[in-house]
Amino acid sequence: MRKLVAIVALFLATATTAQAGILRLLKPMQHMQKVMHVRVAKHAPAYHWYKQVFNAYQNPPHKSAWSCIHRYEASWADDGSPYYGGLQMDYSFQRTYGYYLLQIKGTANHWNPLEQMWVAEYAFRSGRGFYPWPNTARYCHLI
To answer: Tens digits of per-residue pLDDT, 75-117?
Structure first.
């Protein structure tokens, strides 16, 4: 009987450890996919799916263009109202294209550089292109 109790206890401990591991992978994966406005991984958060999402998150399209625009704009943590962050997004822009991040982290000066680039990428894909940054986009030969 003791042996059975020990086996059941070991099974439950292993199950909760596995669940904790899954949840530890699931939460950042969901966050990255919400920031990217895409669903890259459609399956359970196994390591290779997490790696797929992480690699996509680390390499936004037009990353070099966003870095160039940032070079002429401001610090990634710039909190000078009415424009925030390294890409100088106003509140209306943040609310339209980065609503999820605005809710959980506040204005763009609290977002990491990749989150700011993904919000800008979402605006770009929505048809705005690089036109929200007319002067710096010209300096970078983007328009």
So the answer is: 888 888 889 998 999 999 999 999 999 999 999 999 999 999 9
Task: Count other C-beta atoms under 10 Å from residue 31's C-beta.
Answer: 16
Domains and CATH numbers, the chain: 2-57 (no CATH), 63-139 (1.10.530.10)
Where do we find the tokens 């002067």?
Answer: 135
pLDDT > 80? residue 74: yes
**Which residues are CB-contacts of 93 (< 8 A; sequence separation ≥ 6)?**
123, 132
pLDDT above 70 as % of the chain: 78
Taking every pair of C-alpha atoms in the chain, what is the biggest distance, in angstroms?
77
DSSP string, 41-68: --S---HHHHHHHHHHHHS-TTHHHHHH
